[in-house]
Amino acid sequence: MIVLVTGATSGIGKAIAEIFAANKYDVIITGRRKERLDTLTKELTEKYAVKVLSLCFDVRDKQAVEQKLNGIPSDWKKINVLVNNAGLAVGLGAIQEGVVDDWERMIDTNIKGLLYVSRTIAPLMISNGEGHIINIGSIAGKETYANGNVYCATKHAVDSLSKAMRIDMVQHGIKVTAINPGMVETEFSLVRFKGDEERAKKVYQGITPLSPKDIAETVYWTASRPANVTINDIVIMPTAQASATVSVRK
Ligand code: NDP
Ligand code: 8X3
After folding, report:
1. Cα of 72 to ligand 2 centre, how many Å?
2. pTM for the whole thing?
């Protein structure tokens, strides 16, 4: 069995790559940070004795996505599971004060990147006669919160595209699942606040957030259901978080 995980250099994607490797999947890992891909390749190979193919590219670069993914060796092309995980929030501010470059980074990564990867891998799954696409959405794709405007819109797009993919590919037996987490402690807030560690730390203060492993276990559970079962959509929250805007801090 083969899984392809985008954005495996950190956080949720890294934990997903690890849980599939632990369950004897060969793993294709992607991201922009080559040293981290190299380290993870070594870790997974040594710890789990699986094969790892590491592909370094930016999901926003359509040509690179096509070139890297179409160029994988033929014995790697029987991809059973694609996890569209690469994504980010950049900034948190009112629409009327928005930073257009930040908006474009989010739209290009979270929507267009996911589309480029899916457009390349879905036909392979169809020709293989089976496959499972798992999109990492967010509570921000189910609700909207103050100053989250464009990030929320990109994750609403992931919600909508997951439904659309399911309809378009049901005739080919391809499963499509969306996993929508609340707060997960990763590098997400560090990226959102452009390296401001103090501000990033405050996001998780007084609350026990989800861990990347919590999400990875859920992703793996959806991928390990019997052939006749598809989990369409999951919203997974820390126990102390009721909605995008309501949480209890101690
Ligand atoms: P991290 O910042 O820890 O990880 C993000 C991953 O995405 C990294 O591996 C990064 O790799 C990759 N990535 C980002 N931009 C690009 C790009 N342009 N090209 C290729 N890879 C890219 O954050 P998380 O693990 O938290 O985020 C993973 C997903 O989970 C995202 O889609 C996020 O929106 C979603 N999510 C996160 C939540 C949270 O609270 N943390 C909650 C709900 C959803 P590299 O930098 O090496 O390219
Ligand atoms: C990440 C969760 O609530 O910060 O998608 O948008 S939130």
Report:
1. 33
2. 0.99
